[in-house]
Amino acid sequence: MSEKSELQAAVAAGVIGSEEAFRGLLAAIVEVARSIFGAKASSILLLDEETEELVFEAVVGEGEEELLGMRFPAGKGIAGWVLATRTPLVIEDVREDPRFATDVAEDTGYVPSGLMAAPLLHDEQSLGVLEVLDRPGASLFSLQEMELLGLFANQASIAVDLMLRARKAGRLLDADSGELQVVARLAAAVDKLEDSQREAGFRLLGELADTLGE
Amino acid sequence: MAGHGWDASHAALPAWSLPKDAVERISLPSEWPERVTRDWAWGESTGEGARVCILDSGVEASHPLVGGLESAVAISVGENDEVIAEEDTEGDVSGHGTACAGIVRALAPGCSLSSVRVLGSSFTGSGGVLLAGLRYAIEQEFDVINMSLSTTKKPFAGVLHELADSAYFRRSVLVASAHNMPVESYPWRFSSVISVGSHEEPEPLAFFYNPSPPVEFFGRGVNVQVPWLGGRALTVSGNSFATPHMSAICALILAKHPELTPFQLKSVLYLTATNVGGGR
What we know:
The structure holds 2 protein chains of 2 kinds.
Chain A (H helix, E strand, L loop, with lengths): L2 H11 L5 H19 L3 E8 L4 E9 L2 H4 L3 E3 L3 H9 L3 E4 L5 H11 L5 E9 L2 E9 L9 H33 L3 H13 L3 H19 L1
Antiparallel strand pairs in A: 1-2, 1-6, 2-3, 4-5, 5-6
Helix pairs in contact in A: 1-6, 1-7, 2-6
Chain B lengths: L37 H5 L8 E6 L14 E7 L5 E5 L8 H12 L4 E6 L8 H14 L4 E4 L6 H16 L3 E5 L16 E6 L8 E2 L7 E4 L3 E4 L5 E5 L1 H18 L5 H11 L8
Parallel strand pairs in B: 1-4, 1-5, 2-4, 5-6, 6-7, 7-9
Antiparallel strand pairs in B: 2-3, 8-9, 10-11
C-alpha cells in the first residue's frame, strides 16, 4: 500500500485516538486466552524491527505491571525461536531453562513453570508472539489446546496488524506539515457526531468536496 | 540435450533415458522382502553410519542426552550473498535445537549428529540464513536433515523448492515440520520432503501415514521429555518435536539400508507406519 493510500485508509478508519482502542482489543484477547486455558498469565509480544527486540504490548495476570513495555533481544530465547521459525510450541517446567529465567522472569520476580507460545502471522510477516503462561499444573497438554492457541494467535495477529497500520498512518500524519492532519481531524470529528448531526456533517463535507473538486 | 550426440554405448548416458542394454546397470543392490516389516526396516539398527543434521538454533553439545556432535557450525550470509559457515562457539541460542538433537539421539543412539545453526544472529536476515544453512547442509551430504522450522516468505519458496528437490536427488532426506496454523509456509508443503505433524500417543516409535497430504506422517509430538539448555530436561509439545522423531526413524532405516533413495525410504515409512503395517 502506498503512503497516500495508507493515509486514506487511516482517515477512513478514523485512526486518530484509536491506539487506546487497539490496546483494549489486545488486552481483551490475552484476558480471554488466559481465562480459556485457566492460565496464570498471558501476553502479546511485538517485534520492534528497528531495534530487533520483542516488546510486551499486552500483559494480563502475574507480572502484569512489570512486564508491560519490557524489551529483550528478538533473536534468542523461546519467544525468539517462535518468532523466527513461525512455529508454535509448548514447554512445561520452563523454570529449568536458565536463559528464560535470567532474560525476563528474574527482573519481574515471576518465574513461570509452563509456557505456550504461538507466532502472530500476517501475510508473510511474523509480527510477534502470543504467550500463555502456567496452565494448571496437573493437566497434560493436548493437541486440541494447540489448535485453540493457534486460533487465538490468528485473532491476535489480525488485531495487531490493524494496530500497526494505524500506528504507521499516525506517524505519517505526524510527519505531515499539517494539511493532511486537518482532513483526518475533520473525518474523526464528523465520525463522533450524533446521528442527526452526523448526517448533516457528511452532507456538508460532500458539498465541500464537490466545490473543491470543481 | 543440446550438443550431445546419440551414443547408446556411452557410459555417461543421461539418466533420463534407458536403452535396452542399460537395464542391467540399474539393477537394485538388494532384494526387497515380500512383506516389509519394522524388523526388516530397522531391526538391530542403532543408526550407526547415518549422519543426521539438526538445522535449528544450535545444539548444546556437552549435554549428556545429546552425546556429542560430529560438527557444529553457525551460518551467516556474506556481502555478496555467499554462505559463511563458521565453527559455532555459541551453542544453542534457544534450547530448541538441543531438544531435537536429544530426541534423535534417544531413538538412534549410534547415529552421527551435527548442528547447523541458522537462528540467533539477527531476526531480519533469518530467512536468507535459513536458505544458506539448508544449502550448506545439502552440500555436506547428510543422510537426514531435520528441519523443525518453516518460513512464510513467498520470495523464498522458489529457492527452497529447488533446494528441497536438490536434496531429494542427492539422497539427503529433508524431514520438515508441518505448520498447524492457517498460513502458507514452506518447505514442508513440498512433495520432495517428508512432512511431519503430531500425534498424541506416548510411544516414540509410533508414527502414522496420512492418506490426505500435504502432511504425510504424524510423529510423537505431545508431552515429550527432551534435553534443554544447561544440562536440564523439559516436557515439550509441538510439531517441531514430532519432526526429530521421524528423522530418527529415517536414520535407523538408512543406517541399515544405506542404498535407499528418499523415494524408497518414503515407501518403507509408509509400509511400516503404525496404521499400515507397523503393528505386524
